[in-house]
Amino acid sequence: MSSRLQSKVVIVTGGTSGMGEAAVRRLAGEGATVVIGARDKARGEAVVAEISADGGKAAFVPTDVTREEDVARLVDFAVSEFGALHGAFNNAGGGNSQGSIREMDASFWESVVSLNLTSVFYSLKHEIPAIIASGGGSIVNNASVVGAAGDPSAVAYSAAKHGVVGLTRSTALDAAKDGVRVNALLTGLVNTPLWQGFTASNPEAANSILSQQPTGRSADVGEIAAFTAFLLSDESRFISGAALAIDGALTAGY
User: Fold this and answer.
1) pTM above 0.90, yes or no
2) Residue from 138, 157, 219, 225 carrying the catalytic annotation
3) Number of folded domains in the chain?
């Protein structure tokens, strides 16, 4: 594996499972020092131990991304412990279908927006100054294909992910002259533990979803991680403010 991220310090939120964990392992494998922010302390420490055993560098900070003080502490730890911050993969999030907006509880809306949009606001607010002070770098926000088109079965989640795309574009413009790039991933169907659990319990529904995929398959988490590593590296230094689909051509038909 390349060493294109050598000497870079990178934060990954939601880095204890799925796309986040795959990104942590990929980034560490390419030479980055990775600071994991997530709620699962046992799993976070286990991932750090495995990376360290393989010769990589990583640390874990218990983080609830819906709390600004936790996000601020995560960024402060990266800078104080490793001397700089050069990048971030703001990956933490999640959502469930909730039916029509006419039946949606306000508390559900607030919880989904807090986890998927406000958390990214907190992350960018604290990461950007630290990255500027470190000489510039790159941030990747994990949005979703439902950040590019509506979904009547996931209204709150779709609205939040549309917000992530808008936040990405606006902050990319705001920070461009300071040497900070900001991009969003429009991820499609990915073979995460969540998807595997859904497939096991709802095989017919899973097959129906898969039938709508132009490629006929889900993405491997490693494919998302590889693209994230590219966007966090200097090889992508002229890419900023973009919402980049990594979805097997799904949004090509939107």
Assistant:
1) yes
2) 157
3) 1
